[in-house]
Amino acid sequence: MAMAGTLAGRLSRMNSQFDIIRHPYSLSSMATAQAAHVPGNRLAKTLLLEDEGGYVAVVIPSSHHLQMSTICEMTGRKLVLAHEDEIREVFKDCDLGAIPPCAMSYGMQTYVDESLFDEPEVWFEAGDHMELVHMQRDQFMTLMSDAESGKFSHRMM
Predict the structure, then answer these.
(1) Start and end of every YbaK/aminoacyl-tRNA synthetase-associated domain (predicted)?
(2) Number of domains in the chain
(3) Rounded Cα–Cα distance for residues 70 and 90 (Å)
(4) Are strands 121-125 and 131-136 parallel, antiparallel or unpaired?
(5) Residues in CB range of 55: below 8 A, 6 or more apart
(6) Chain-centre distance of CA 122, in angstroms?
(7) CB count, 10 Å around CB of 102?
(8) To the nearest 5 percent, what fractions of the chain are helix, strand and coil?
(9) Domain that holds residue 126
(10) Sign of CA dihedral 37, 12, 146, 73
(11) At 131, is the secondary structure helix, strand, or coil?
């Protein structure tokens, strides 16, 4: 699978400067970081959450855990992780588990952990399990300018 069309369209509209990094097939964000030789705190992973009001996406470093209580407080919602079957319906042009961070292009509110903005460069899934998009911090911040930022994750030990 090539880059997700929705992501490619956003990158083009935002005039983003980026590289595509190929890596061996991997199914988890930490395995992807290892396979691509990328620091886990610079690899953005996207989680889909839901409640009766619909979906929201949260973007955190792959080396971090989501603090669910903090994101629920921040959004004023009682969110839980979305089921895999539902994720397929929302991100139709992506492989399951390879969701790009710009979920706002898929019509949902997106929250990005501000720790990603502290990194000089960021990598993220291109929509499959074998390619990453790599860009400098300012490019990533521009790409994610429609997202709300906050502190809602913590580094794994």
Answers:
(1) 29-141
(2) 1
(3) 24
(4) antiparallel
(5) 48, 49, 82, 86, 90, 108
(6) 11
(7) 28
(8) 30, 30, 35
(9) 5-155
(10) negative
(11) strand
Phi, psi of 73 (to 5 degrees): -65, -45
Tens of pLDDT along 134-145? 999 999 999 999
Distance CA 125, CA 93 (A): 12
Q: How many residues does the chain have?
A: 157
Is residue 33 within 8 Å of 39, Cβ to Cβ? yes
- CATH code, domain carrying 25: 3.90.960.10
* DSSP string for 57-109: EEEEETTEEE-HHHHHHHHTS--EEPPHHHHHHH-TTS-TT---S-GGGGTSE
Residues 127, 118: Cα–Cα separation, whole Å: 24
**Both tokens of residue 51?**
């409640």
Which token pair is 92?
A: 């139709």
Shortest CA distance to 20 belongs to which of 42, 3, 1, 32? Answer: 3
Q: What CA dihedral angle connects 139, 142, 144 and 149, to 10 degrees? A: 110
pLDDT digit string, tens, across residues 85-100: 778 888 999 998 899 9
Q: Which residue has the tokens 């949260």?
A: 58
Residue 157's pLDDT is what? Answer: 65
